[in-house]
Amino acid sequence: MSRILVLYYSRSGNTEKMANAVAEGAKNAGIPDVELTYHVDSEDLANFDSILIGAPTYHHDMPIEMKTLFEEAAAKSVNLTGKVGGAFGSYGWSGEAPKLLLEIMKNKFGMQVIEPPLLAKYVPDGTMLDKCRALGKQVSETLMHQT
Ligand SMILES: Cc1cc2nc3c(=O)[nH]c(=O)nc-3n(C[C@H](O)[C@H](O)[C@H](O)COP(=O)(O)O)c2cc1C
Question: Which whole number is the average pLDDT over 122-139?
């Protein structure tokens, strides 16, 4: 049975709204095992078939929690090759974080990433939340066809 991780960080709740919608879309499309969380140990990343990350941009960067997570995963040689990766996040003016995360997932870990990332300017509106649900659905359907 496939497992999907929706990992997010959110300080003022905007990226959290996106994460909830991504998880909802994934579950409704047929994969029941969707873990929505703001913390995971680096070794545990290997236990998921898809890793979807919600990261707001602060100071032109991704949250330190996520940087540390991938630093640790690399140091411990956690194998994420071929897993489905996606990224999304709220931003104010530059929005680098989700793009940086997709780059790491693709170039360092050899994941199969869905591009471009989903970016919401501040509070995600209804259209953006629909896009988030669609991202979850796409991943769920991709995994169902793989197994
Ligand atoms: C101290 C601070 C620094 C920020 N730096 C950036 C930035 O470099 N680029 C950007 O696009 N948005 C920046 N923002 C805006 C946040 O990304 C935006 O408020 C976003 O909605 C926060 O998402 P969250 O509610 O999920 O934490 C910054 C906000 C704060 C408070």
Answer: 98
